[in-house]
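Hi team,

Filling in the usual template for the complex we talked about on Friday. All components are listed, including any nucleic acid strands or ligand strings, so the model treats them as one assembly.

SUBMITTER: L.P.
PURPOSE: interface mapping
COMPONENTS: two
RESIDUES: 223
SEQUENCES:
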Amino acid sequence: DADVTQTPRNRITKTGKRIMLECSQTKGHDRMYWYRQDPGLGLRLIYYSFDVKDINKGEISDGYSVSRQAQAKFSLSLESAIPNQTALYFCATRTGTGEGTQYFGPGTRLTVL
Amino acid sequence: EDQVTQSPEALRLQEGESSSLNCSYTVSGLRGLFWYRQDPGKGPEFLFTLYSAGEEKEKERLKATLTKKESFLHITAPKPEDSATYLCAVQAGSNYQLIWGAGTKLIIKP
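RESULT (copied from the run log):
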C-alpha cells in the first residue's frame, strides 16, 4: 500500500464550484505539505502544516484553504474554483526534525472549466 | 532572492550515451540539495540528498555531485527506462522549506 495517498486522482469541475482534495499518510510524519505543479514551473508551495495545530501559508495560498484533521490527514480546499487553478496538486510529508526528505503522493489532476 | 535553475529544459540521448544534468542555485544557508525523479502522471520520487560541497552519491546509473554553486546529476550508459523528468530542490532557511527548479525532461531513445 502507498504511504501517501491522494483522492481524487482526477477531477473536472466548473468555475465557482467548491472542491476538496484529500491527502492521507501512513508514514507517521508530522509535517505535511500541499504543492501545485504547472508546466514549465517548479513545484510551488500552497500550505504546510507542522502538526495538527500549526498551519502556515506558502508562497501561493490565495484562493486556497486547508484543514489538518489529524496527524495523518491534510485536506486542501478551493472555495470557488477558477480556471487558472487548473494544475497538478501534490501532497507531501516529512519527519519533523531538521533536514528531511519529503515524500510525495501520486497527485491530483484538477481541471477547472 | 533564493533561486534554483535547472538546465537543460530537455535532453534527448541515445541509449548508452552518457551525459549530465545541471542544477544551479543561489540561496543563503543551504541545508541540503535534493534530486527527485518524476514519471508522467506520478508524484516525485526521491533519489538523493547532498549536504556539503564535494559530496557525491550514486544509485545504479546515476551519480549526484555538489559544489558551492551547483549540483550535477550524471547519468552513465542510460537506458530507456531512465526517461523521466528530474527535479532538483534546495532546502534552506530556518523553516527547512524546499525551493524547486523547473526540472529537466530526459528522453532516452533505444
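MY TAKE: The interface with chain A takes residues 4, 9, 31-32, 34, 36, 41-46, 49, 51, 87, 89, 91, 96-103 of chain B (CB under 8 Å). DSSP finds no helices and eleven strands in chain B.

Thanks, L.
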